[in-house]
Predict the structure.
Amino acid sequence: MRIALFGDIHANLEALEAVLKDAVEQGCTDYVCMGDIVGYNANPVACLEKVREMGCPVVKGNHDEDASGEHSLENMNPVAATALEWTRKQLKPEHRDWLRNLRMVRQVENFTVVHSTLDQPQAWHYVTNKFDAMSNFSYQFTNLCFHGHTHVPRIFARDSRVSEIEADTIVLEPGIKYFINTGSVGQPRDGDWRACYLSYDVASSLIRIHRVEYDLASTQEKIRAAGLPESLAERLSQGR
Ligand code: ZN
């Protein structure tokens, strides 16, 4: 079985479609979503309906929570808040209910899935280095856990100590715990504009980071046509 792990789609339909097409070409037959389906970009409903139709396991992201709630967004970064206010207006009650009912943590096959971290999933901690990853590992009871949230693909491993592995492909070793960020489909922030997802071949324990080109110009055009902040269109081409 080969599983595609994808998340932080952020309402970027062109990127989502390109990733799903590539995953089929890579031989993936199963899918797991890290959350943050909506927010920032201009196709929240289409992306939500696509993921919902797939019927795959999905965990809740902070933007899914914020878009499906009615609480104030004033403590948030103003650009993200503007996009979320706009997103709230696009979603119908059924979309909000679906997002609201997503679970924070899921166990799939032999691994765990969470949007941010297992120690405090609701606190939405960002894991940007091995020290941040340590608290997660204390609460990780499977050898393998996938997450998202920072929009940067990263592989952390713990044997006697925690380290970051800089590679696009790894073969999981027995007895070692892995905490792996699947990067972002719809708004990568590692300087590479291409959509990012991971594939996990269960039989061979092989994990690969994939990058996929998509129709960026259309996504940017839709952001402008929707009246969303221009910076959201610009950051996509920079991968920031
Ligand atoms: Zn996100």
Notes: The radius of gyration is 17 Å. The longest helix spans residues 13-25.
